[in-house]
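FW: tagging you since you asked about this chain on Friday. Here's the raw sequence from the shared folder, copied in full. Didn't touch anything.
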Amino acid sequence: MKEASQKDHVLIIEDSVATAILLKNYLTSMGYKEIHSCQDGKTGIDSFKDLVKSGTDPIVLLDFVLPDMDAKSIMTQLLEVKPDVKVILSTATEKTDAGVTELIRRGLYQYMEKPIRFEKLKQILDTLDEERKYFEKNSKHKVSADTDKDLYKEVDFVLKSQKQISLTMIKQLVGGDEVKIESYIKDLESKNKLTKLENRREMSCNQCDSVKVIQIFYCPSCQRNDFKMAKIIEHFKCGNFSEENEYVDDKCPKCRKEIKALGVDYRVLKNRYICNKCGEIFQELSSSFLCLKCENKSSIEEVRWKTSQFFKTANM
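HL: got it, structure written out here
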């Protein structure tokens, strides 16, 4: 069983009470003692802030869609509180869905399809726990790897959770002797554990030059990052725009007239965002870029670009 520590806090953000109870019971059986559960995004974000403020480092189990906001909004706010937060997403949506793919690109730690397979969750948590223990142990004794064995083990840890990664990113995540890192990467190539891809451009911070940069999103009107994705109905007769669930019994919430024919009385606008703060409805989110190293924020026009060699990883 695991020993309780500050690393053992888990925050479940899940609107299904039954799923949250199952997750909590399973985590308890794994030895996790500090498990927190929330049923909506706002409560989850507030709980996360409180946990971080108290000095803990919570792992977040996040549902894709919550009643008040979606995972994109929640992840944006979590990242602003703690840029290296480890988020594990659970959703019935296909992995190839654009929304899920975007979260993966933005630094989602792992992804689980619903119904949740607990052996998959155990595998993810065990790997995460192993990584944390290793890097925590080594950070107490050295700034970078002291031996070739330590260096190569750190490279393996980085590659284990990545499908594709640049050589620049590997060097910045691991630190240490770059010549030895390059030599080890070539060795992994020769063993078919890595496949060299084409050179690509990747963003880097305009202050510290780190490529550990992620995109964060916010409302174009009020600049807040508290929003949700929704399906909107526009009623032609009165010009009302409201969420689909506000049209009770097919009646417009503004003029109370019944909507009947799609394309004649109304139209449906899919994949729109509603700001929970100012109430504005918009199709595209505004965004900026956050450096996970120095926490500098910049616009797309301000970020730097560098060309890096990319690799596709195999089972390590």
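FW: The longest strand covers residues 194-204.
HL: agreed, and Residues 220-282 form one domain.
FW: great, closing this out.
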